[in-house]
Amino acid sequence: MKSQTMVRVKQKQIAQLVSIGKRLDGRELTDYREIQLEVGVVGRAEGSARVRLGKTEVMVGTKIELGEPFPDVPDQGVLTVNTELVPLASPTFEPGPPNEDSIELARVVDRGVRESKAIALEELCVEPGKKVFVVFVDVYVLNHDGNLIDASALAALAALLNTKMFNYEVKEGEVEVKPGYTPLSMRNYPIAVTFAKINDKLIVDPWLEEEQVMDARITITTDKDGKICAVQKGGYGCFTTQQISEAAKMAKQKAGELRKLVVKG
Amino acid sequence: MSQKKPEKLIDKNDVRNDGRGLNELRPLKIEVGVLGNADGSAYIEQGKNKILAAVYGPKEAHPKHLAIPDRALLRCRYHMAPFSVEERKSPAPSRREIELSKVIREALEPAVFVEYYPQTSIDTFIEVLQADGGTRCAAITVASLALADAGIPMRGLVAACAAGKVEGRLVLDLTDTEDKGGEADLPLAWMPNLNAITLLQMDGSLTIDEFEKVVNMAVEGCKQIYGLQKEALKAKYVAVKEEVEE
Questions:
Q1: Largest CB tally within 10 Å, which of A45, A68, B33, B173?
Q2: A85–chain B nearest CA distance, Å
Q3: Minimal Cα–Cα distance from A86 to chain B, Å?
Q4: For residue range B233-244, what is the model confidence (pLDDT) as tens digits?
């Protein structure tokens, strides 16, 4: 257990440093922590990836199964994103049904992938209105040290790019699995960039202790063409329109840098 | 029964299906103090949206371990009635409702002086009776009035409104059909007294330039809604005054 007094002192220091453009860990306000990326870390999964963002660690596995389409888009496959804040990742995570933080995290990751139309879902239709493939993206947080959204979104994209789809043939409405695999068809590469607002300044990639000090956060997800495809504000503070514009421009730039780590060539 | 989707959502003269211009809000009707038991309540109709909000508190926080030593616990529940949408919605809270409850709470909390009521809870209940796009925004607009009606000290009201892009044009206050058929939807909550955004979400596809325009458009919409909020709040007290003078 850390002493509450020490926590307060450190929080005050973090806030004071940010106001003069510095951070406790020596980063610039717009720097990410070191990012390590591994793909294909779980052989049983159709696709997988593990991202380390500083001490934050997230694993994502994808599975593809047969299921039913949504009634409003009968001719498209289904994307399902789920997150597990597993208790081994933080003293603040508890076992049980997903809480609102976990649901928000899943929905923000989902929105980025969905709205950028990253997966060619229309290629995953077997029989319109009846049978389609469901792509399950399961985000597993292994160590929580802040900015779970960016780490999870990055790991989800890397896992999807690593996903192999089994070959199949449709015989009398039934799917017959054939030997061999083809990569899941991907068209876009959404990248989430999160900013925390501390002392009226925006900082990129807040770590846990910065998150505990921040007034609010904003996540801006941009696609490969630099278009914004998802936004989510969180926390109890507020932003000015100027700060939002500033964040949008910076997000586009930072996303370009991060995308190079995941999308080769 | 499901209605057929119209072929075009906006005609060549920039008139939308419901007759509105691009920059026009749906008709709004707001009433404050509509429920007997609640400490504060309000009702809003924004186009076909019909939403009720009620506030109970500040009261002792239950369960006790949730009480915060130096401020009130603001709780918020956004819930849709099973009959509020085309296909019956299960009354159990969906993932969408849980997320919306969270972002609505975070949109309202900057407005409330939670530090005045340590150890207590302020519970905000929002029931969507009929939904037609933009319910989270209308919910924030009406919930902030219910908080004010409960006499809870606030830094100001919160007004919310969405803007987005439909068939290549930037539009204000999207209906459900426009949201589903359009390219982007951006719900935003605005506190005029702080000149600040307290809720911002977006899904779809916008260039940075369009994004900035849509944000400003939504802020302008919020300013109009703020005017109507103030009128509705005053109207309640005019009615009370008349009653007393009779």
A1: B173
A2: 15
A3: 18
A4: 999 988 888 888
Helices (H) and strands (E) in chain A, counts: 5, 12
- Tell whether B74 is covered by a domain: yes
CA distance B13 to chain A (A): 27
From chain B, the residues in CB contact with A4 under 8 A are none
Name the residue among B199, B207, B216 with its Cβ closest to that of A241. Answer: B216
Distance CA B154, CA B74 (A): 13
- Tell me if B215 and A241 make a contact (CB, 8 A cut-off): yes
Q: Which tokens belong to B70?
A: 């130096």
The ipTM estimated for the assembled molecules is: 0.91
In this prediction, residue B26 has a pLDDT band, given cuts at 50, 70 and 90, of very high
pLDDT in tens, A36-67: 999 999 999 999 999 999 999 999 999 999 99
**Tokens (6 digits) for B115:** 């530090």
pTM for the structure as a whole: 0.94
**Quick one: which of A76, A74, A93, A77 has its CA closest to A85?**
A93
| Mean confidence (pLDDT) of chain A | 95
Domains of chain A: 23-262 (3.30.230.70)
pLDDT in tens, B133-164: 999 999 999 999 999 999 999 999 999 999 99
B91 lies in which domain range? Answer: 28-245
Determine whether the interchain pair A231/B201 forms a contact, defined as Cβ–Cβ distance below 8 Å.
Answer: yes
B195: nearest Cα among A245, A232, A199, A239: A239
Whether residue B21 lies inside any domain: the answer is: no
Nearest to A238 among B196, B206, B207 (CB): B196
Measure the CA–CA gap between B189 and A231, rounded to whole angstroms. 14
| Mean pLDDT of the A90-118 span | 96
Q: How many domains does chain B have?
A: 1
